[in-house]
Structure formats: C-alpha cells, structure tokens
C-alpha cells in the first residue's frame, strides 16, 4: 500500500509540472484569433435535450431477486441474507479506501470476515427455511408443490398422507382408470363426478371447496372413501372386480 501511495504522489507531481508548463506556454506571444460569436440563449419554451441516464440492470436484478420466495418465513430469512450480503459488500468497499490503511486494515479484515460468515450463515438459513416451507406444503397437501402430473400427485398423496406403497397405488390407479380415465372433470349422467366418480360429486367438498377442479382434493377423498368403506384401495379393487363398482 505504501508503494502505491508513493507512486500516486509521483504521478501528482508530474501532473502539476505539466500544468505549470501549459500555463507558461499560454502566457507567451501567440497569433490573435477572433473570438467565436456569442450563442444566443434558448428562448423560453424551446426544447432542451436532456441526457438519458440508463437504468442500472444490476440493481434492478438484485431488487427483483428478493421477490422470488413463496413463504413469509423464507422471505424474512432472505431479507436477512440480503442485509448481510450488503454489509459484506460494504466491508469490501472499505478495503479499497486508501486513507489510514495501516490503522484500518486490521479492522477492515475483521469486518470482512465477520460479514462473510454472517452472509454464509444467512444463506444457509434461507435454504433451510425454503426446505421447511416445502416440507410443510407436502405435509399439508400430500405432494411436492409444482407437480402437475395427476398420476404422480396421486402416488405422492397415497404415500405421504396414507402411508401406502406402490401395490396400493397400483390398485388405486386401476380403479380410477376405469371410473374416470384420470379425467378430473369426468361427469356421469347419474351425477357421479371427478376422478373417483363421487356420487354426488359434492361429497368431495368434505375435503375441500375446490373439489370440482383440484385433482388433489378428489384423490384424497377417493383414498379416504376406499379406506373407510373397504379397508384399502386393493380391497376396493377386489370388490370392484366382483361387483363392477365400488
């Protein structure tokens, strides 16, 4: 750092010498030139162009990044991570200052180290909060948020909410295929509706008010019905094979 300061002083001296030489040269005799004509001031109301200042895409991206979390807990943790990251960047900025380097270097290094550790801890906490929110969603609705395949939703719900394995899922799938061919809006003239062909369809409102369109609501109701009436999806399948319905 001292070497950089010495080089900076030498550069400042050279710049000063050049400025003095330029002033001396300007003081010598020179051929007179005509002064340019004065520029008339713009009249009131004339258009005066204003320099365009481009947006800062980096700042915009940083602000947008904080809006991507789904839950309040994850959002609060991400804000803490962003605050810690800002402190870390501030500490790095302090390290570039050239004033009182010898006195400030130890403090700056300690601040950088502490800020970096805090940012890493906050980032880890944010990841943990996201996982907790995801696990809570799975426990609540039975399947991973974002899953769109109806059969996969059913497989996860049967495993997470009913502790059924692939054998019970296979029996459940066998019944649903024959009842509605996995059509959430399948409707029978008798009034049966949805994946499990609940009769009437409004019975599924006991699980959720979105029973007409939500496959998860229909799957949960169907699995509960099979379990309460027959004992399991495979027992319901056995009855369906002998009676033609369940």
Class from helix and strand fractions: mainly alpha
Q: Runs with pLDDT <50, length 5+?
A: 1-35
Q: How is the main sheet built?
A: none
Helix percentage? 55-70%
Strand/helix succession:
HHHHHHHH
Backbone CA Rg: 36 Å
Measured by DSSP, the beta-strand proportion falls in: under 5%
The first-to-last residue Cα distance is 84 Å
Which descriptor suits the 3D outline? elongated
Could you say how many structural domains there are in total?
2
How many beta-strand runs? Answer: 0
Structure report:
This protein has 246 residues and is mainly α. It has 2 domains: 83 residues; 94 residues, no CATH class. 63% of the residues lie in helices and 0% in strands. The longest helix is centred in the middle third of the chain and has 41 residues. The protein is elongated, with a radius of gyration of 36 Å. The N terminus is likely disordered. This is Transglycosylase SLT domain-containing protein. It comes from Microlunatus spumicola. It holds the Pfam family SLT. Keywords: Coiled coil, Signal.
């Amino acid at each position: 750092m001292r070497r950089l300061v010495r080089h900076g002083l030498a550069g400042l001296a050279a710049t000063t010498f050049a400025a003095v030489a330029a002033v001396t040269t300007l003081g010598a005799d020179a051929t007179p030139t005509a002064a340019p004509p004065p520029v008339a001031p713009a009249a009131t109301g004339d258009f005066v162009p204003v320099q365009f200042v481009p947006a800062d895409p980096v700042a915009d991206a940083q602000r947008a990044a904080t809006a991507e979390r789904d839950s309040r807990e994850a959002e609060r943790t991400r804000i803490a991570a962003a605050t810690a990251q800002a402190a870390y960047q501030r500490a790095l900025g302090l390290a570039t200052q050239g004033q009182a380097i010898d006195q400030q270097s130890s403090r700056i290094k300690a601040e950088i180290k502490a800020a970096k550790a805090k940012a890493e801890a906050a980032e880890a906490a944010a990841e943990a909060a996201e996982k907790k929110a995801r696990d809570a969603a799975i426990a609540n609705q039975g399947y991973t948020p974002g899953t769109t395949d109806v059969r996969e939703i059913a497989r996860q719900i049967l495993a997470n909410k009913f502790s059924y394995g692939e054998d019970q899922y296979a029996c459940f799938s066998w019944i649903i295929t024959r009842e509605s061919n996995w059509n959430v809006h399948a409707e029978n003239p008798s009034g049966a509706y949805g994946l499990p062909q609940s009769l009437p369809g409004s019975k599924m409102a006991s699980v959720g008010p979105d029973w007409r369109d939500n496959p998860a609501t229909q799957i949960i109701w169907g699995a509960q019905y099979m379990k309460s009436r027959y004992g399991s999806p495979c027992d319901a399948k056995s009855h369906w094979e002998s009676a033609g319905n369940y």
